[in-house]
Design brief:
This protein has 112 residues and is mainly alpha-helical. It has 5 helices and no strands. The protein has one domain. It is 76% helix and 0% strand. Helix 1 runs antiparallel to helix 2.
Length: 112
């Protein structure tokens, strides 16, 4: 969904487009990791229904996405020094949400 807007931005402001693409990529990667780490198994009968993620995972996605968006904005504005603390907090929240393979397997076996 962001390919065309970022491509247009890159056409007019290449550095801004690059920074925005990196920020969008980081936000997408962090949300993907959280969803893998906190997945919920579903029954075959539930495939037609939409399952919501846990509120903790959703809250973490919103927080990390907002921090990365703020860091991207500050970097584009030329205030990269102010962006670093936001990225550090985002990385810290991401590492707090991390689960090992054993924890993921245990959660899937218990729920299934």
């Amino acid at each position: 969904m962001l390919v065309l807007p970022i491509a247009a931005l890159t056409w007019f402001q290449p550095l801004t487009g690059l920074i925005t693409a990196v920020g969008a990529g980081l936000a997408a990667l962090s949300c993907g990791l959280i969803n893998v780490w906190h997945q919920k198994p579903g029954k075959r009968a539930d495939f037609n229904r939409r399952r919501g993620a846990s509120w903790l995972a959703t809250l973490a996605e919103i927080m990390i996405g907002g921090l990365i968006a703020g860091a991207t904005t500050l970097t584009v504005m030329g205030l990269a020094g102010w962006a670093a603390p936001l990225l550090i907090v985002a990385l810290t929240v991401l590492m707090v949400m991390r689960r090992t393979d054993e924890q993921i397997g245990r959660a899937l076996r218990l729920a299934g």
